[in-house]
Write a structure and sequence with these properties.
Elements lengths: L1 E6 L5 E8 L4 E5 L4 E6 L5 E8 L5 E6 L6 E5 L4 E6 L6 E6 L6 E6 L2 E8 L2 E6 L11 E6 L4 E6 L4 E5 L2 E6 L8
Antiparallel strand pairs: 1-2, 2-3, 2-5, 3-4, 5-6, 6-7, 7-8, 9-10, 10-11, 11-12, 13-14, 14-15, 15-16
Length: about 180
């Protein structure tokens, strides 16, 4: 069963992640309807979310294991570039920074983390909510230019981040959960 999906920047290839005992990730050519690559042996229970970087060379995956493991792949070669414990609580989304290509962000139950990839190491920094917004479950995330990140919170707020600090809250942008 497929539970996660990411579209490659070329809009031809797609990555899908499975749920199950020994889940794997398939990268498909959507025109030929053929498997291009299969990535396995990192996650257990399932693959919660996937994202290609801006040039499509790397793929990040998040597992459904107890540590919500993050894995960065050279998906064409089937090689693991880096892994890290994601968080003690569930991760719902992950995204690459389109400008600073060594950075990515993950979010989930009462957290958001900003990651830096250096060699084979992934280093996290927790998002600082400060007095700009309440610590919440973050359901979705998207990155933009100028170190800006946008996230959708469980209560319907949209949070705007600069670096790893919350700088603005659009209160009840949706009135209810996003």
């Amino acid at each position: 069963m497929c539970c996660s999906l990411a579209l490659h920047p070329d809009k031809v290839q797609v990555a899908t992640g499975q749920v199950g005992k020994d889940p794997f990730i398939c990268i498909w050519d959507t025109f030929a309807m053929q498997t291009v690559s299969i990535l396995r042996d990192v996650h257990s229970h399932g693959v919660a979310c996937l994202a290609f970087d801006s040039d499509g060379q790397r793929l990040v995956s998040v597992g459904l294991d107890a540590k919500n493991t993050l894995c960065v792949w050279d998906w064409r070669r089937g090689r693991v570039l880096a892994t890290a414990t994601g968080h003690s609580d569930r991760i719902f989304d992950v995204a690459w920074d389109p400008i600073q290509t060594s950075r990515l962000v993950s979010c989930g139950v009462k957290h958001i983390k900003f990651w830096t990839l250096c060699g084979n190491a992934l280093t996290p920094k927790r998002g600082v909510f400060g007095k700009t917004g309440d610590l919440q479950t973050i359901l979705c995330v998207s990155t933009a230019k100028e170190e800006l990140t946008y996230s959708g919170a469980l209560n319907g707020d949209v949070y705007v981040w600069k670096g790893f600090s919350l700088v603005r809250t659009v209160a009840a942008a949706h009135g209810v959960s996003i």
